[in-house]
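Example 4.3 (complexes with small molecules)
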Amino acid sequence: PLPVLAVVGRPNVGKSTLVNRILGRREAVVEDRPGVTRDRVNYEAEWAGRRFKVMDTGGWEQDVLGLDAAVAAQAEFAMETADAVVFVVDSTVGATDTDEAVVKLLRRAGKPVVLCANKVDGPAAEADAAALWSLGLGEPHPVSALHGRGTGDMLDAALNAL
Ligand code: GDP
Ligand code: MG
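Answer. The structure with guanosine-5'-diphosphate bound is encoded below.
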């Protein structure tokens, strides 16, 4: 079976945009409305000659009920079952309490994690990415999922972790 790379993070950080970028086509659901990806969705992908599965997940939130809680549980299941995790953070917002809570879950899951500092659309935003060293997950990889900036280097790191 192909190795699985799960893409996780709180709502609206750009997980699905990143998955589309990885796939090179518009397939994962992206909307301006937060939290639109409800379930884990698996896609077959290829990068640098390696085939793998990329799993888009819904936005993880803490202390939620009903559908949001089910979405969060699915995201937790993805963290626990994937071979490696791409943790997406919105570098224009910085590390939030929710991001810190995800870090705890990731530590518990014990899978290799690559920290994707998303929405670094230009060089001026690199400093925002560097601020995410504070999460304690190692090097933040500056990425613009929207424009493709940095996604190759981030994927190299993720595939190295598989
Ligand atoms: P998800 O909820 O984490 O899956 O986030 P989406 O992929 O649906 O994206 C949420 C919003 O962030 C959308 O309006 C995207 O266009 C926007 N977005 C995603 N990636 C980037 C990026 O690299 N730069 C900027 N400026 N916006 C982005
Ligand atoms: Mg999504």
